[in-house]
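User: Here's a structure from my thesis project, written as structure tokens. My advisor, Dr. K., wants to see whether a designed sequence matches the one we expressed. Can you design one independently, without my sequence as a hint?
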């Protein structure tokens, strides 16, 4: 699978030549604005501890906070002697997540916006170069249109970005297949977990075939695969999980989490390990980036980054727990 660093296993990030810890750091949660209760001092401690344990890949975005996550990440990374690879993202100029069909790329990622955001991220982070710059939304119909790709090439030539990828619209892995097959991207970032197994159908095999790195996000289904969400779970008023787990979704999640535990002869307390190891059992995955806002989460998640994945028979059993759903019930 890769080379160990301490006890943390590393894998190639596609054809980039970079080796990344198979558990990376998803830094949305430390932006503060969209996640209630994120505290900078705790976030910094969690990041520092993760790097102490061998983590060397952090994924952030200009929109997280906004700017705040990048600044915190930069503060930590600049203070370390180890090499820590930082990935960030350019927000859509029209501020529409996900990308809408039929909207031209010139409205979403014109060249001047690509450059301005990249240079702003470099200032926020205090770094000379980004290891990975990503578009925060994506549609394959943009290939061959607009001036964004020439700007990415120019930023690479200038040494401001090393590699380029896209963050795939939530639960739409099919929308990036052309970019992978035509060599437009070095990496893709996609939602992949026990419930949303759809990337296995076409995207992960295509990435393996074409040497494209895979950053798997939302490995715990926003908490649905931790065994800690039940019918009576509440979230703060402004927390986006109120929408994600709206209607009867909390009860459904609790029942499905229990069914996974029962099927594998495990307890609910074992679900985080099962969920993370399932994602890491796919050979096309380079790294997975759970959000980690506490020392406890950092230590737990990195303990599973040992290159072992799950036994094949458990992976097979989990195929039956794929859950195709309307993700934002009205």
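Assistant: Designed independently from the structure alone:
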């Amino acid at each position: 699978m890769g080379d160990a660093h301490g006890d943390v296993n590393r894998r190639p990030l596609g054809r980039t030549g970079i080796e990344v810890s198979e558990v990376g750091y998803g830094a949305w949660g430390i932006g503060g604005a969209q996640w209630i209760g994120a505290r900078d001092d705790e976030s910094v401690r969690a990041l520092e501890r993760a790097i102490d344990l061998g983590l060397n890949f952090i994924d952030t975005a200009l929109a997280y906070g906004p700017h705040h996550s990048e600044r915190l990440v930069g503060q930590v990374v600049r203070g370390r002697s180890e090499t820590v690879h930082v990935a960030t993202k350019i927000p859509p100029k029209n501020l529409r997540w996900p990308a809408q069909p039929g909207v031209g790329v010139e409205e979403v990622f014109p060249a001047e916006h690509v450059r301005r955001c990249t240079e702003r991220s470099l200032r926020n982070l205090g770094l000379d170069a980004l290891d990975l710059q990503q578009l925060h939304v994506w549609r394959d119909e943009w290939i061959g249109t607009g001036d964004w790709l020439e700007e990415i090439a120019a930023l690479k030539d200038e040494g401001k970005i090393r590699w380029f990828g896209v963050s795939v619209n939530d639960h739409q892995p099919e929308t990036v297949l052309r970019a992978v097959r035509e060599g437009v991207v070095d990496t893709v970032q996609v939602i992949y977990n026990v419930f949303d197994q759809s990337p296995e159908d076409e995207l992960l095999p295509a990435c393996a075939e074409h040497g494209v790195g895979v950053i798997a996000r939302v490995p715990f289904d926003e908490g649905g695969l931790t065994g800690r969400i039940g019918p009576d779970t509440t979230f703060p008023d402004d927390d986006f999980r109120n929408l994600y787990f709206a209607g009867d979704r909390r009860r459904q999640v609790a029942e499905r989490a229990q069914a996974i535990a029962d099927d594998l002869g495990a307890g609910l307390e074992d679900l985080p390990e099962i969920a993370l190891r399932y994602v890491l059992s796919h050979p096309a995955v380079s790294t997975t980036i759970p959000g980690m806002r506490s020392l406890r989460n950092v230590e737990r998640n990195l303990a599973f980054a040992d290159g072992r994945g799950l036994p094949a028979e458990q992976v097979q059993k989990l195929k039956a727990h794929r859950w195709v759903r309307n993700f934002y019930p009205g």
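When you compare it with your expressed construct, this may help: The longest strand covers residues 161-167.
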